[in-house]
Amino acid sequence: MLEVRNLHVAYGGVKAVKGIDLVVAEGETVCLIGANGAGKTTTLKALARVVPGQGEIRYRGQDILHWPSYKLVGEGMALVPEGRGVFSRLTVAENLAMGAYCRNDKDGIAADLERVYKLLPRLKEREKQIAGTLSGGEQQMLAIGRALMCRPRLLLLDEPSMGLAPIMVQKVFEVIQSVAAEGVTILLVEQNAQLALSIAARGYVMESGAVTLSDKADALLTNPKVREAYLGGE
Amino acid sequence: MKTKGNFMGIPGPAWLGVALVAAALLVLPYVAGMAGTAWVRILNFAILYVFLALGLNIVVGFAGLLDLGYIAFYAVGAYLYALLASPHFDIHWPFWAILPLGAALACVFGVLLGAPTLKLRGDYLAIVTLGFGEIIRIFLNNLNAPINVTNGAQGITLIDPLSVGEFKFSTTSTLFGLTITGPQKYYYFLVVVAVLVVILNLRLQNSRIGRAWEAIREDETAARAIGINTRNVKLLAFAMGASFGGIAGGMFSAMQGFVSPESFSLLESIMVLSMVVLGGMGHIPGVILGAVLLTFLPEVLRYGVEPAQRFLFGRSVIDPESLRMLIFGLALVLVMRFRPAGLWPSRLRKRELTTEVTP
Fold first, then answer.
1. Interface predicted TM-score of the whole assembly (ipTM), two decimals
2. H-helix or E-strand containing A10?
3. Which CATH number, 3.40.50.300, 3.40.50.620, 3.30.360.10, 2.130.10.10, labels domain A2-85+154-230?
4. pTM for the complete prediction?
5. CB < 8 Å to B2, chain A
6. Do A132 and B355 touch (CB under 8 A)?
7. Taking CB atoms and an 8 Å cutoff, what residues of chain A touch B355?
8. Which is nearest to B355 in space by CA: A83, A132, A142, A94?
9. pLDDT (tens digit, 9 = 90+) per residue, B178-220?
């Protein structure tokens, strides 16, 4: 589904990502963990073509390095940006409708709206509420729901647990798992390594712009180095 | 959205209202004509400002891009008309050829302004657009040498009025036993164009492009995340907004018969922006109201301040001209203090100012 080779990203003169390799297979849930400032978010933004990168990015066999971001959404790659980025002055329903911007099939959109409401019943309850007045967790769910409205094949999630109450984090991750169960491929960027590894099949560990470890999720969970650095282990 | 008996989202009974407004618009120039031809002219200017305010509303109200140089597009349209229909170059093209051309040229200028400012927002964008507006005005002021294109500060005179065959819009004539003056003819022409412009704006707002503008105004990153080509959509806002300015400019030229750079000062840009903000940013009926009110208020004050002073104090105490602008300024302050979302705000703006939003 996604193959990244030797990806470099720099902001001005500062190199944020220094040549990383990454593979996500179809239907897989993969997480990218690491400390603050390791370059996780930047990597994700480069993949979604929101920031320019160098190297090789292949999505479903096509080289997308120079594609504009809107074209990727049409091709089924959706980004749920860090800090949620819902349209805070629009209602929940309007936000979801905006998510279907890339499509024209009225019936399909209506069906997907039902699907999203079924997956996220909380959104259905708050259909007419203004997004900015939702709780952080509800906003995160709305952001995910909105991304689902363009029927993505690959969902890029940037720090979905950020700033949420523990109970909400749990709920959001349950939602991510049900989305994955529907066959959507997921690349998850998280600081909460424990949680991310618990739902992912594989994980990459990033440190100051480079991938230092990559393994099966269970293996990473028991890896002493990972435990020490990210899981607050013994 | 469309249900039976509805047309363009207007429910059946509302057509009665539409009919009443239409009748009012029809007799208005004759009512105004009784007060003097000057009032018919002011009425025409009010419609021109409606065009301008609706055009700027696309950029500022719909797409959320603060533009302080909007009057430049008005100038482009006005000068194009002046150059192509006056003795200056001895070219006399018909208006139906020049007006669309003016809209197209303004469109090009809109993109010229939009392209380098795509990454700017808020105050920074405002300053660049302000500079752009001034550049156009200064060019018009100085483009009389080495080749005399714009005739500099003297401006261009003897611009052809609108005419269809032998029927001239500038003179009084009798149609079906009814005397109709020049400004009254222009009025009817402007009203027809205004109705088209308003319908176009309503359709735009509810279109896919309108929703994309709304998304960009709300959150540009999120807009990109849902697959909006933000670059093109922003350029389109600049281009469409500018084209309305271009048409208004052409009509202005034809009506006045004279253009000079001083008609396109920064104050004019600010005036049009005030109409948009005071009326209700992003809300078409509000913007129309803002444009009409802000055109009439200074004029009403012009004719009202002096007699009012004489009546109250028996003589003119304060220079009427300064007092007029003082009251005008005060009125703006009061409106913004007590109706911060504008006189007739949209549902969304109202929400914005009444609901606590957590970022």
1. 0.81
2. strand A2-11
3. 3.40.50.300
4. 0.85
5. none
6. yes
7. 89, 130, 132-133
8. A132
9. 777 778 888 988 999 999 999 999 999 888 899 899 999 988 8
